[in-house]
Amino acid sequence: MQIIKLSATESTNTYLKELASVKNLDDFTVVVTQKQTKGRGQMNGLWESEQGKNLTFSVLKKVKDLPVQDQFLISICVSLAVYNTLKALKIPDIRVKWPNDILSGNFKICGILIENNISGFQITSSVIGIGLNVNQITFKNQPKAASLHLLLGEEIDLDELLKAILNNLECYLSNINASNWDRLVNEYHNILFKKDVLAQFVRENDSEFSGTIVGITRAGKLKISLKDGTIQEFNLKEVSLQY
């Protein structure tokens, strides 16, 4: 595993993708930085992080024999790897908010951005970006954000934490294939935020509705049971959970 450490960069995902376009990188090449000036989240949202306080890094994972229709397996594996790392630290009430935000209670502590390269009908590689709030203690514009320091009351060694996450990522991603779907999706469902709980949602047209998350589809769509008993499936941009 090669780890490239940067003092600052616009985005570790962007840096790693650009590097991979001009150089044949080893599988599991990692780029980590103390500061991201243009960190990105889901749907081009900004990821804000105080310099030197948190983990902001990206991992290149080369993939074999994973059909495009099963690409959500990568998201599941990354979510489970981060979840199990934080569980070992005894972070309270950890859940995965669909598709792959990591929460403690109602507070977001980690965001994940996955960008896949596709050739034909196969995934060939993924750039996996992870932003984890570790030692930052103030979040001016993020009322639903927290950090490991705030939750545990102590500072965390960033290098040791990075090592633990990477070890778990290697464990989950080393043999990723569609035959593991049932086992992995069951693990994911067990820690899915608000699963089997009546909740409020907002559609992309701003209309609100009540429903209960019952799981995800093979393609990673969110399955919500409505009051009339029907189950509807939603892509990421089509619905947001209110909490």
What would you say about this model in short?
The protein is α+β, with helices and mostly antiparallel strands. The chain has five helices and twelve strands. It has helices at residues 12-22, 72-88, 148-152, 158-173, 181-190; strands at 3-6, 30-33, 55-67, 94-97, 101-104, 107-119, 122-132, 198-203, 208-216, 222-226, 231-234, 239-242.
Q: How does this model look, in words?
A:
With 243 residues, the protein is of the alpha+beta class. The protein contains 5 helices and 12 strands. The chain has helices spanning 12-22, 72-88, 148-152, 158-173, 181-190, and strands at 3-6, 30-33, 55-67, 94-97, 101-104, 107-119, 122-132, 198-203, 208-216, 222-226, 231-234, 239-242. Strands 1-2-3-7-6-5-4 form a 7-stranded mixed sheet, with helices on both faces. Strands 11-10-9-8-12 form a 5-stranded antiparallel sheet, with no helix packed on it. Strand 4 (94-97) and strand 5 form a beta hairpin. Helix 2 (72-88) crosses helix 4 and helix 2 crosses helix 5. The longest helix is centred in the N-terminal third of the chain and has 17 residues, at 72-88. The radius of gyration is 18 Å and the shape is globular. The relative contact order is 0.15.
